[in-house]
Amino acid sequence: MRPIPPLVVLILVALTGSARAQDPPKRDHDIEILVVDAYNAPPEFVSDALIRISSLPKVDKAWRRELLDEAYMRAYGAPEQYRRTTTQQIPPDSRQGAQVFAYASALTRVTLQVRVVQLMAAVDRDRARELFEWIDLNLAPGVCADPLVPAVDDYYATLGMLARTAYARNRADALNFLELYAWRAHLPSEMPAVARAIQRFRSGSLEAAYFEGLFRLILQGSSTDAPGFASAAPDIVSRITDLQIADAALGLTGSSLMDSLRAYLIAQFKAPRCADNVTAALMPTTFNAALRRAKADADVSPLDAAAARFQTTLGVAHIDMYWQSFDAVRLHDAAVKLRGRGTVPLPLRVRQTAEWRNQAEGLLTDIERWNGRSEPAERDYFYQKAVLFTWLLDLMPASQVRSRALRAFVDFLRRTDTDVNQRMLWSAFVHRLLEMSRGPFRSEVLTAMEDTHQPVLWLYARLERLAPERRP
Questions:
Q1: Per-residue DSSP letters for 112-167?
Q2: Contact 252, 208 (CB under 8 A)
Q3: Cα–Cα distance between 12 and 149 in angstroms, integer?
Q4: How far is Cα 383 from Cα 378, in angstroms, rounded to an integer?
Q5: Which of 395, 441, 437, 389 is nearest to 414 (CA)?
Q6: H or E segment to which residue 84 belongs
Q7: Do the Cβ atoms of 155 and 114 come closer than 8 Å?
Q8: pTM for this one?
Q9: For the chain, which terminus, N or C, has the lower number of CB atoms within 10 Å?
Q10: Residues with Cβ < 8 Å from 159, sequence gap 6 or more?
Q11: Angstrom distances, CA of residue 324 to CA of 57, 328, 330, 377, 429
Q12: Could you give the CA distance from residue 338 to residue 225 in angstroms, rounded to a whole number?
């Protein structure tokens, strides 16, 4: 056999090396398995998990873009479209307080898609802008019986961020982009976020003057929303005043924004309002103080208290308190006694005694046996029982009883994951478990979650193990 000439050998080596260089980069095997397993979860959990996986250190840029694209699309399957909250005082031990707690898990379609856009902006700014343009807010006004109102501040914060970064080389296009999507705002709960986005974007007196005119038109064309105005009115006054002061610092003369704010408040005062709206009567005084803070009281007339007098009133917020049934009251009172009725829990030395541990074990047994048949709805029973478990786990020092309580809580979550209408509330307690795993019981919590073999619990436990360890 004739030997291969040296020149041919060099060519073959070069070609082989070139082919290898074009092979796709090797991906971490454990993360690949985690991605596959994520698809066994409901869509909002798939989206959240892929977002979290995309931020792992071993995920390269191309893979991150792929994961984020998929996470965005999966978010369309989320049962809840956008987050809702309120600045009104809502008792945490109520059905409405449970809703606020559930929305904090941020597993709504809009919240998930905004998170994708924020991360995509660091990978592919053009793709991030494209995905943002696809987000459909479709916000609906609230009703007075429900104190929670739409909360999409993160949407407008991301709008401002993209305008500043995705169009960094073309200021005119950036301005047009911000203007186009700021026009979506029409509810009172959106106005503070729009004011903040404008303040962070505009530069120089010419842009400030332009955006003052734009914001005036947005306010003039906005919708009335009785519960939304009750919740957002103080923040509206505060943010617009901040924007007016910032514009003055750029050299803009006049008090156009404060004048627009005054007209907006009067229009809202004339609309029907919730009968329990306590903020409206305070708004004239609040606005007049804001005028002085902005040094605009010489240009804009103050508001008279008569402007906020009731016109037509609607209903009132309905608050459904928990711990009302006999069994719920008994378990709640036992948990309070175990904790101690003061402002702080009983000292650790007391909670380490055999007497206290025996009382905790007795309460744990009662919680495990509680079936919730006397509760008005399954969701109410789920929330109250989950709260009792978390109270116990927060109080109990390391012991066999605490380990039993943890297993009981995880098993309770495993058995109550089927109702699509309470999935977001369910996920809030899963995240509560993850918070516990970032403390001294990390291994025990994550092992308990993995041992259930429930798709979401297993998924989040594995994610937590792969992520860099965090502390609360």
A1: HHHHHHHHHTTT-HHHHHHHHHH---------TT---EE--HHHHHHHHHHHHHTT
A2: yes
A3: 67
A4: 9
A5: 389
A6: strand 84-85
A7: yes
A8: 0.89
A9: N
A10: 132, 177, 178, 181, 182, 197
A11: 48, 6, 10, 13, 22
A12: 44
State how far the Cα of 391 lies from the Cα of 336, in Å rounded to an integer: 9
Of 57, 102, 56, residue with least CA distance to 83: 102
**How many CB atoms neighbour CB 254 within 10 A?**
15
Q: Token pair for residue 348? A: 């650790």
Q: Which residues contact 427 (CB under 8 A, 6 or more apart)?
A: 44, 45, 102, 105, 107, 456
**Full DSSP string of 374-430:** TSSSHHHHHHHHHHHHHHHHHHPPSSHHHHHHHHHHHHHHHHT---GGGHHHHHHHH
CA distance 50 to 47: 5
Q: How many CA atoms lie within 13 A of 357 on its CB side?
A: 13
Instruction: Identify which of 76, 19, 91, 86 has the alpha carbon closest to the alpha carbon of residue 46.
Output: 76
Instruction: Give the pLDDT means over successive 10-residue stretches in the chain (472 positions).
Output: 49 50 75 94 96 94 97 96 91 94 94 98 95 94 91 96 88 93 95 95 91 95 92 95 95 92 93 86 93 93 84 83 96 95 90 95 97 93 97 95 97 87 92 93 96 94 82 49
